[in-house]
Amino acid sequence: MAAEGSTVLGFYSLAMAAILKDQLPAAHAARFPRFPLPVARLARLAVDQLHQKQGLGERLLMDALQRCARLAEEIGMVGVIVDAKHERARGWYERYEFERFPDAPLTLWLPTGVITRLCGA
User: Can you list the domains of the chain with their CATH numbers?
Assistant: First the structure.
């Protein structure tokens, strides 16, 4: 959460989830086994309207991804998924290398290797 005094400027929430390899983009699916794959779901990420377009969303996303990078080392997971609220939000996530699920264009994924690179870990 990002706050200024008692005012919440932005926040995110993470939850653990599982996906099937068939849900992933084809370029990634082949390297995984058939059983459910552990992922972190970026369940929410929001910035107060008065504080948008100031880089806060990116800072929150990077904080979330850094947490996920640590989780991947500790408990193992293959990536992060997010359900974009609309096409504009999908485009925002795609700037950070998230990829669309083939059968759900507003659902995106970011593999742990990319997360590690983005976080400089």
Answer: 2-119 (3.40.630.30)
